[in-house]
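Figure 2 data, in text form.
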Amino acid sequence: MAFTGFAQDNPLQTQIKVQQAIQKKSEYHRMTNGVQEGYRIKIHFGVDREAAENIRNKFSKSFPEYDTYKEYQQPNFVVLVGDFKTKLEAFESLQKIKPEFPTAFIVKEKIKAK
């Protein structure tokens, strides 16, 4: 019968590993400009720029906790909200948003890493 033991890291080794992880994360953010794969909620798309801006303003007043983005995706102006890392996070927010914006839906997007 063989016994395999595992040595625990001493505090100095743990601190070094934490510092290395922080450096790797920092380097990743620098290389990707803080952008990663994620999800947003699309609340509007249409050809009218002013309508898109009005929807964006209405949303911002109702839900100030979410970032909003207006993009032009030819031929439509699109209003997207949030920076969600997981689809579950996006879905939970969608449930809050749907009563006021019933046509809202989740889309895969590049998001700002936090």
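Caption note: The chain has three helices and four strands.
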